[in-house]
Amino acid sequence: MNNNLVSTSMEKSFGKSLLYTLPMFLITFIFISGGKVDFSNLPAALAIVVTFLFMNILYFMMHYTGKTDKFRVILFIIFALSLSFTLIKNMMEMRHSMSFSQADLLECKIPFCHLVIPMMIIPAAFTKSIIFPGSVIGGFADISSMIILWLVATLVLGRGFCAWGCFYGGWDDGFSRFRKKSVIKKISESWRWMPFAVLFMVALTAAMTLGPTYCDWICPFKAVTEFEQISSVESVAKAVVFISLFLSLVVVLPVLTKKRTQCSFLCPMGAVNSLSNKITPFVVKIDKKACSECFKCVQVCPLFALTKEDVKNGKASVFCSKCGKCVDVCSKNAIHFGIKGVPAGTMKNFSRNLFLFVSFLFISVFSAGSIINAVQSIFKLLF
Amino acid sequence: MFLDILFMVDSFILGLSTGSACLLTCGMVMFPYLLAGSADVWRITADLSIFFLTRLTVYFLLATASWYFGQVLFMNPVVKSIVPGILYIVFAVMLIWYSISRKRQLQCPSGFVTTIDNRRLIPILLGVVNSIGFCPALFIILTKGASESTLVQSYKAFLAFFIGSSLWFLPLPLAGKIRKKKVLQTIGILATGLAGIIFIIKGITSLIGGLINE
Amino acid sequence: MKKLKMITGITWAFAGLILMFILFPGMNNLSMSVSKLPFMKINPNYNGGVVAKQIVEASCTLDIRKPVFDGLLKERKSGFVQIDWRGTVPDNIVDTIDYDLDEIPDFTITIDRIKSTTSINAMSSKVLNIGVSTPTSYGWAVRVNLKK
Q1: pLDDT at residue number A265
Q2: Do the chains contact at A208 and B6, CB–CB below 8 Å?
Q3: Prediction ipTM score
Q4: What is the number of domains present in chain A?
């Protein structure tokens, strides 16, 4: 069979792709702009229009070319970069520094992120309180909004949150694409259970100390967001840990392995999202009849979610983030987005269209604010 | 502040993290023997109680011995800070190595006990061998016992370690039904390695404290 | 059975789609509901605890908060008390504090806001040292470490 013909079976004609993009076009327009664009503030209006058009072009291309990951990753990386940019810019404007002060801690002004959620569950159950110096409601990245966002995303997308929603994942996803071939090829499968061990330890230590251990001592993304003011030996030690983990797990190892090593070996949220993969409606399925067992999908999977055994068994493991890299690379179209309960190899187009709509809607609306902010800043800088 | 609280509960965390791996290597050996024969609920409870009591007794003996040696060997306060600091780092590195090494032994050291032809002795011997199985975690807790200033504190450290590791043994009768034994074992071993990092930090803190006071 | 599984799966997938539709427009209402859950309040170790006594002066207000010893299951042996000066805070502060409200002074705190120095004179054996002393958006805040 002609490889090219098979690989493009998810492709659509120009008109059909446009038709599929239309609902996303309208919905994102309403959600992002609130239904109207105020051209009295030209840079802001242009930023909204550019972001909105850019996102919808990506969505159109997903339908037109039949490729998912190729276009998802562009938005994913831009989301990560723009969020860090927006956060750093806000901090520089408000505090003239990337670090937060003792006063910010005392006044509970620290932005909340989803990585705190696994640590706050046990203390919330026992002390009926949140162990984080943030705002419960109102203000930038408040606790209630972030919990709702994560909860809905993880319920619907499962670990798909790690490929379609996490505003940190774009960093190591980006670095994992730097080289054409990996330098380090053999990594033991046992390591993919590391996030569960990290989750166990951070949940335990957070409960014992009533402090968000991961944020305080481990989170590599402190290096590109905000961290504690350097005022003691302890804060120096923390900064060293943040920077070393960022350089090793987010930059160097992804470049050398072509894998998302921070997400695969460290992130406790990844472990929680893997568990939620058990209930989510969307899955990646393998049609064993069509599979030629070339194992290209195993090779390209950025999260060690596919092993040869998984392919032979016909389903991706709980680690799957539904990024679509394996789907894009499969020349036989055997691996595809599916819906739980629907047999592999059937309703491929329907499942993909529905999954793409849901996941793209989430990432586009969730990322819009920070991307618009970053684009607006670039416009202001240029003009 | 965070480190102070963390070091207060480090024995419990060490026990809890090593306990999971310990249960899944030794639990499978112990389980059939604890439940063999005409085992009713009372017999199982009695055997498990004897096993726990033996472990606790052995730990208290070890707490006393380690504290005594600590008092004799670390008379100088600077030495009392530097030597345990070095020992913590060495044993913690061993613990991490154990967790990442592919050649680690995954067989229960107390397996031979179950071959003894005396049913009543088995829970006691299992408790003894299980407590003194020479692993890096035990060396760490012995170091902690030796560096404590009072015997009561040494007892507290061993008690916390005992409680942490024993929690995993409570659902022992269910151990045979665990479907994903290999996965849980892997997570337990990796968590043990992470507990080692806490003791490296503790060792460095102790070492720096000792060097500053020198 | 296969058909039932299929229908359930597809229904669940469409429910996901609806959830996603509701999420962003309903964000304010949803997060407001979450914020009302019983555990949705900041732990006293972070927000400093509730105000136990307020002393109002001409230009500034002094808040003495309830001492915080909160642990997971029981109170800890060590904790802190937070004192806040709100309003127009003078450059030099000297205040004697009775944090346990037993009408016996526990410590005197001296702050030089210009030099950013803080010192404490403990009058109770339960008072350890200064944990935090910092300017805030509302004035100045100090956390004094305590033991039980």
Answers
A1: 95
A2: yes
A3: 0.90
A4: 3
